[in-house]
Amino acid sequence: MASLRLPARSLRSISSLPSTLRYPATRCQLRQFSSSATRNGASPITSKDPKTGEELPNMRTVKRPPVGELRAPVVNPTDKYASQAEQLHAYGQYLMTCLPKFIQQFSVWKDELCIYIAPQGVIPVFTFLKSHHAAQYTMIADITAVDYPTRQYRFEVVYNMLSVLYNSRLRVKTYADETSPVPSITSLYDGANWYEREVYDMFGVFFTDHPDLRRIMTDYGFDGHPLRKDFPLTGYTEVRWDEEKKRIVYEPLELTQAFRNFEGGTAAWEQVGPGTDRTPDSFKLPTPKPEEPAPEKK
């Protein structure tokens, strides 16, 4: 192995370091010199095995076996659910055979089975799902809805069921609109009471034979249903604390904005002109009066 000679400037800089840093700095200089020597065509520095003293091969120059043509693996996420999907397909066919009048169709995605029913079949279908020995869906996990404004029946009511006995989940879907209600299943599942109230509050879907169908999440006298697609994001009213009246007040929402020039290369939100102050007087707090000095104590 050829002897290495560090520059004098490097030696002086290393000698000025504390004793605890000299050794790492020397190794750093050797590493930098060895990489530069390799680039210049000199033989690279090889390390030795501390036990046997034999020189270890340089992994940069060791020949690697050919890897062949690289191909991306084709992974289908539904493959691992193939066995479950076959069983769910068979069970879906069984449900349609038992209730051909009410179940319109079913679908299987991975390990999830979903059946589609008409609103008139809600009570018969859920009675079967709860009481039949091959179903035993005795727990209602959730009731929600989805708004599709372009459909004839814009609301899709979704029931998520759980069978504790068979450790199985089932999704049931039906449809409704603003005027056609859905039968309530509170007579079968007590837990459906608040779920149906939430769907009514958020979407405006009516449930017939519900014992207490009223809003549950929004305030009394709330206008509209927040989760509908045609409901504005800002709402219609705002709630705030009125300092003068010393109470919470409801006011119509007013969002105003000064004229903005979108032409001429200016920034989109650069204000043009002084604008107009449209802050309501109820938002403007009066200027506090100066406090009177306290009388001096004698």
UniProtKB/TrEMBL annotation:
Family statement: Belongs to the complex I 30 kDa subunit family.
Annotated SUPFAM superfamilies: Nqo5-like
Pfam families recorded: Complex1_30kDa (PF00329)
Spans annotated as Disordered: 35-70, 266-298
Sample GO molecular function, one term: oxidoreductase activity, acting on NAD(P)H
Taxon lineage: Eukaryota, Fungi, Dikarya, Ascomycota, Pezizomycotina
NCBIfam families: NuoC_fam, PRK06074.1-5
Keywords noted in UniProt: NAD, Translocase, Transport, Ubiquinone
Protein name: NADH:ubiquinone oxidoreductase 30kDa subunit domain-containing protein
Reaction(s) this enzyme catalyzes, per UniProt: a ubiquinone + NADH + 5 H(+)(in) = a ubiquinol + NAD(+) + 4 H(+)(out)
PROSITE patterns: COMPLEX1_30K (PS00542)
NADH:ubiquinone oxidoreductase 30kDa subunit domain: residues covered: 115-236
Entry keyword Metal-binding: no
Biased composition (Basic and acidic residues): 289-298
Protein's cellular compartments: Mitochondrion
Domain of life: Eukaryota
GO CC, any one term: membrane
Record field: compositional bias (Polar residues): 35-46
Residues that span the membrane, as ranges: none
Organism encoding this protein: Drechslerella dactyloides
